[in-house]
Amino acid sequence: MSIDYTLDIRGESCPYPVVYTLETLKGMKQGQLLQVIVDCPSAFRNVPEEVLKHGYTMAQEPEKNGRDMIFYITA
Amino acid sequence: MRALYRRWVLSYWSPYAAMALAGILSAVYFGITKTVWAVTGEFTRLGGHVLEWFGADLSDWSYFGLVGMNGTTWTRTDGWIVWGMFVGALIMVLLNNNFKIRVPRQKRRWIQGFAGGIVAGFGARMALGCNLAAFFTGVPQFSLHAWIFMAATGIGTYLGVKLIGTKWWKGKPALSKGSIDTASQPTKRKVQPILGGIAALLYAALIVCFFATGHPMLGVAALFGAFFGICIERGQICFTSAFRDMWISGRATMTKAILAGMAVSSVATLIILLVNGMDPITKIAAPSTLIGGILFGLGIVMAGGCETGMMYRLMEGQIVFLPVFLGNVIGASFLAYAWDHMGVYDALVASGSKINLFTAWGPAGAIAATLIVLGLVFAIAAYWQKHYRFGTGFKRGESHHVN
Questions:
Q1: Which residues form the UPF0033 domain (chain A) (predicted)?
Q2: What ipTM is given for this predicted complex?
Q3: How far, in Å, CA of B115 to CA of B222, rounded?
Q4: Helix (H) or strand (E) holding A73
Q5: Catalytic position from the list A3, A6, A14, A60
Q6: Who among A3, A30, A65 is closest to B401 (CB)?
Q7: B55, B148, B169, B401: which sits with the fewest CB atoms below 10 Å from its CB?
């Protein structure tokens, strides 16, 4: 799995994790892979939900790393 | 036992379950104490106490007469609701080993949070309640002012979303090409759950103490406060996102959960009103409700959290909510000053009146009207969630990608 871009939004609270993720995905080419690292507990839930709703797919299950969460999203 | 612990302590709850439970608990709390679940009134009093320490004479500030300044925060039920919420949320965060000091990378967030906190605190108190007394517990009391406040909050959050969407406000995230090394963090021995367990035991002992020493109402407030804190933390309940996320990306999960919770709470409150023969709590509906609601909506989006959301976020270690809390107290205190010293009451409140659907239309009419309107808003939220998209709104057929 080769990751094209990484968005490190640890420390950011809502709504910025969702806004940054959707904005970044919008600027990517279809099929590219985005890695998103978040640590805001609300984002653990609303980032994957909004990503799917907007037509992108999760390339694999989210990874919990200590108190951070890592998402892998296909644009 | 272990499965129950896993389900209710170590997992997040569905926001619907969390809000329905909070709705029932708030109705029961009203039945016992004759007051509602609320927090910003206490924030105003905290501001008042600070002013008194600095030698201010509050006797001619009519707003403090209105909210009542008797005793200290430790001898008031409203005080223990606030501290109970903090403690309940903190216990849950610790048991889940989820406390982490989360520092925003962009310095502007500190100022944004502080400014938003002031605007939200000021607006909430102008309207005589925040997202609780003028919203989540106001609608079930059939007080008309809560409906005005809710609509006004919708307008305010729309303005807020326009503001935070600007480049200078939003800032830029750390975006890099390729992968970055995310060294897996070793799972050390877990200290936090032990601390959480100790905190829970100490707090339970304190509640028992209240009952044993003849302060049953403080015990009830401390207990319910903790329950409310647990509900909002486990459900990750966010009143701000219930409005804001509809405008941003059409997310309405929280909106629908809060509406459902209010419907449950309305029925529960109605039963308690009828069984106990109590009168509902009504607040003045006036131009101040509308303007206060708009300011509140704007402020909570600027701050990234409302008066309740910031409480559990702070306990999670999101320290950007410290200036928000401070701002809330300052904004509420400033409103208390402006109330009579700057003519807010005469200009915006005096013309209003207390209108209650329960007293105006009777129990059947009040509950029917409440449930119908809640149902309608729920349907709109569901439609919104299905069709509204980030960046394009309701327009269809646009590509999700650059090419």
A1: 7-31
A2: 0.91
A3: 30
A4: strand A68-74
A5: A14
A6: A30
A7: B55
